[in-house]
Specification:
Distance between the termini: 101 Å
Largest sheet: 38 strands, antiparallel
Structural class: mainly beta
Number of helices: 1
Shape: rod-shaped
Radius of gyration: 45 Å
């Protein structure tokens, strides 16, 4: 493969010589002239003679001088062979080698063994070099090494050209190419550098090692400005890996020990753009189905692995360390804690339109349609901020100070429970404690609202300045208000005091109240009413009462209803049941009809009262 590549480039180079050198031959009168030799002998050959020169041999052609210890020169053809301490000087350019063949009429030098060419801008060594003396261009073959502009380029073969007044050469290197620039090392099978454009293109399995970070792709383009790398482009199959070191903390038999750990961060995407400041990597941008596998450390202690993906991933660096990761376009990810992580044991799954992760501060910002799932809890909001150090999450309807986005109220959902919503949510993923500002939730057939909802222990919520209603309107027709309310899941609700409001007007209150809250289970407690309005009853309040369950065999329910066009209704339901023996119910109902007078002072006149008694009993006979 190496031989084929070399032959291709030799053929290309010969075509290049014909195109460039022929015009020079037509318009030049310079000839190679012998200036000095200690010994000169003319020896006949077929068709003429040659000069054999020994000692301090010196030739000159224009501004170029050639010296050696032994030479053979055919003046007719203009071809000279020089051996022994061979040296070529032209202005500030120098060339040395073991031997050379000079085609003076074509201005071509063929140099062999230990070839060294240098001037004030570049330095080239190779096993052999074909050099064009009039245009400072050449083809180096075999162990070619070019040094210029703080770079060292090694290759099997290298074709180069230096323009007049230029401070560096353009080159094309083939075969086992290695480009070293400080701590940055690039390798590939084919490299092309254009000095005018300040651009290097790496082809054929290109890779760049930049201070431990390894970048690869189908092709890599490097753009320079003032001899410093400014940008980098990988147009297809972009891939970057970088090592990360730290410690894994383990506790065994009350003894704490630290074991060293080495991880590999991995980024992939369709394309990659890199940006450099002062020659150092400042940022990277992966686009097209971008993925990131990043290992999380806290104070050098390993915490887990963070896997993320999105349309684009941007990474910002501070010197050698990653400072920020920005994922946009369908961003989603999973944090998988290490088995030694003391703060969390379960994975954290997250998604949003845009994710910003600040590695140093260990902060994650999720912007627009944000979602986080941890164990049996799911949180959604327009914006979230997660502090990985404290495991505290802050959720808001929109990004702070963003007035253009459609707000999404923060919501927390726990498996088997009604969701809670609010204007702001603070939640600790480790302790599962949280706070909801201006929160609301639905339990059984009612709605709870509060200026602040807290859960200090699992399954228990404390509501400050709370409201309870069964009316589902934004501004309910009626509600119960309490300064302090405590909800114990699958047990009860405790409120103190409890005040009934109808149309925003307080009607009556009690200092203390307890309601059942057991999702269908039998439990003594207050029963909340419902509010409505019909043409026949007018505005009404139905079902305020108390449920009493003293034992598994008997319960009683007392209900009070009021309608402004009908009156008061009191109902008492009693049920009893002894399995395999008997069962039944006793219903007592009293209806107190108010007067139809419009004068409120006469509302008690001309009223009627109805009484209903209904008893049903069933006996099992054996």
């Amino acid at each position: 493969m190496k031989t084929n590549n070399s032959r291709i480039y030799i053929n290309n180079f010969v075509n290049y010589l014909i195109a460039i050198v022929l015009p020079v031959l037509l318009f030049s009168d310079d000839r190679l002239r012998l200036i000095h030799a200690d010994i000169l002998e003319n020896k006949p050959i077929e068709g003429g003679s040659v000069q054999e020169l020994k000692g301090d041999v010196l030739f000159k052609k224009g501004e170029m001088e050639l010296s050696c210890k032994k030479a053979i020169y055919n003046e007719t053809t203009g071809i000279a062979t020089l051996t022994g301490n061979t040296n070529v000087v032209k202005k500030d350019l120098h060339l040395t080698c073991d031997s050379l063949l000079f085609y003076s009429q074509e201005d071509i030098l063929k140099n062999f063994n230990n070839v060294h060419i240098w001037d004030s801008d570049y330095n080239l060594t190779a096993d052999s070099v074909i050099y064009l003396t009039e245009i400072d261009s050449g083809y180096a073959n075999g162990n070619a090494t070019l040094i210029q502009q703080k770079q060292t380029i090694n290759a099997d073969a290298l074709h180069y050209h230096k323009k007049p007044e230029s401070d560096a050469v353009s080159y094309e290197a083939v075969g086992n190419v290695i480009i070293e620039e400080g701590t940055r090392i690039a390798t590939c099978g084919h490299a092309i550098y254009n000095r005018d454009a300040g651009k290097t293109v790496l082809k054929v399995n290109p890779e760049i090692d930049d201070g431990g970070r390894n970048l690869s792709g189908t092709e890599i383009s490097l753009y320079y400005e003032n001899e410093q790398l400014k940008t980098l482009l990988i147009p297809e199959k972009a891939h970057m890996i970088s090592p990360q070191f730290g410690w894994r903390k383990t506790v065994s038999d009350s003894l704490t020990q630290r074991d060293s750990v080495e991880t590999i961060n991995d980024l992939q995407g369709k394309t990659l753009n890199g940006f450099f400041i002062g020659g150092e990597l400042d940022s990277l941008r992966l686009a097209g189905m971008a993925t990131s596998v990043y290992h999380v450390f806290e104070d050098s202690i390993y915490k887990g692995i963070n896997e993320a993906s999105g349309d684009t991933i941007t990474m910002l660096f501070d010197k050698k360390n990653m400072e920020e990761i920005l994922i946009s376009g369908g961003a989603q990810g999973t944090f998988i804690p290490d088995s030694t992580n003391e703060k969390t044991e379960s994975a954290i799954i997250y998604s949003s339109k845009k994710i910003q992760y600040l590695t140093g501060k260990e902060l994650t910002h999720l912007e627009k349609n944000a979602s986080i799932t941890h164990e049996n809890t799911k949180l959604t909001a327009g914006y979230m901020k997660l502090n990985m150090k404290s495991n505290v999450l802050n959720a808001l309807p929109t990004v702070p100070a963003d007035t253009t986005d459609i707000p999404i109220r923060p919501t927390v959902e726990e498996k088997g429970k009604e969701p809670m919503r609010g204007d702001e949510i603070l939640y600790n993923l480790e302790s599962k404690k949280g706070r909801i500002i201006m929160g609301e939730t639905k339990m059984d057939d009612g709605f709870y609202y509060g200026e602040e909802i807290r859960n200090r222990e699992e399954g228990t919520y404390y509501i400050r300045e709370s409201i309870y209603t069964t009316c589902d309107l934004v501004i309910p027709h009626f509600h119960f208000a309490s300064d302090k309310m405590k909800i114990i899941n699958e047990d009860k609700v405790v409120a103190r005091p409890l005040i009934l409001y109808v149309g925003g007007i307080p009607i009556f209150g009690i200092p203390f109240a307890i309601f059942p809250h057991q999702y269908g289970a039998r439990h003594s407690g207050w029963i909340m009413p419902t509010y409505g309005e019909t043409a026949t009853r007018g505005q009404f309040l139905d079902g305020l009462g108390y449920y009493w369950a003293p034992n598994p065999y008997w319960d009683s329910k007392a209900l009070l209803s009021f309608a402004d066009r009908q009156g008061l209704t009191f109902k008492l339901y009693n049920r009893y049941n002894k399995r395999y023996s008997y069962s039944g119910n006793l219903k007592l109902e009293t209806l107190y009809f108010l007067s139809s007078q419009k004068d409120i002072t006469q509302i008690g006149d001309d009223n009627r009262t109805n009484f209903v008694l209904d008893w049903r009993h069933s006996q099992s006979l054996r």
